[in-house]
Amino acid sequence: MTEQSSHRKAIRSDDRGKTTLVLLGIGHAHLHVLREWRRRPLPNARLICLNNFGDSAYSGMLPGVLAGMYEPRQMKIDLASACRVAGAELIVGQVAAVDLPRRTLQL
């Protein structure tokens, strides 16, 4: 993760001319996108994941946690590691504004 001022630039443009795909929030569907990105990244593209927190909970384990079968920490997903393994960048923060004509996100 980098400082917020560089996030704005990272989301706004890429000096190498790569296509930038930004995923807002990392739930089950976007974890699947990360898994597929790791297996088959798009050529000349980069993936940025923006999430409010650095970790997430795997809700499928919640019944087991409530039943005492698992510790709550066991259902946590380390999003920084998941992104790093997939070759994506994680930004922890929130979108404050979207500028469609300029194709930018402000954090």
Report on this model:
- The chain has 107 residues and is α/β, with parallel strands linked by helices.
- The protein has a single domain (4-106), classed as FAD/NAD(P)-binding domain (3-Layer(bba) Sandwich).
- It is built from four helices and seven strands; from the N terminus they run H-E-H-E-E-H-E-H-E-E-E.
- The strands form three sheets. The protein has a three-stranded parallel beta sheet with strand order 1-2-5, sandwiched between helices. Strands 3-4 form a two-stranded antiparallel sheet. A two-stranded antiparallel ribbon has the order 6-7.
- A hairpin with a 4-residue loop joins strand 6 and strand 7.
- The chain is globular.
- The two termini are 14 Å apart.
Task: List its salient traits.
alpha/beta; three-stranded parallel β-sheet; two-stranded antiparallel ribbon; globular
Q: Care to give the gist of this entry?
A:
Helix content is 32%, strand content 27%. The protein is α/β, with parallel strands linked by helices and 107 residues long. It has a single domain (4-106), classed as FAD/NAD(P)-binding domain.
